[in-house]
Design brief:
Number of domains: 1
Number of helices: 3
Structural class: mainly alpha
Length: 71
């Protein structure tokens, strides 16, 4: 898996897991888990508009492999 967008992107996998888990938690535990879903969605929009992604920084810090882009 790679940090950058595209096939095999860890960021997309983690975001999808967070959304699915928080929706399930909101159904079975408490509605307040939907706030977490909203925060994940907000960060996805900020990442798309600005290029800033905290999860990318976290994954780089723990040593996730980065895909090399050919120019």
């Amino acid at each position: 898996m790679f940090v950058v967008n595209g096939k095999g992107s860890l960021i997309r996998l983690i975001a999808g897991f967070f959304v699915l888990a928080s929706v399930l938690l909101s159904v079975f535990v408490s509605q307040y888990w939907l706030i977490f879903t909203g925060l994940v969605g907000t960060m996805l929009m900020i990442s798309a508009l600005t290029g800033f992604c905290p999860m990318e920084l976290i994954l780089k810090a723990v040593g996730a492999e980065q895909r090399k882009i050919c120019s």
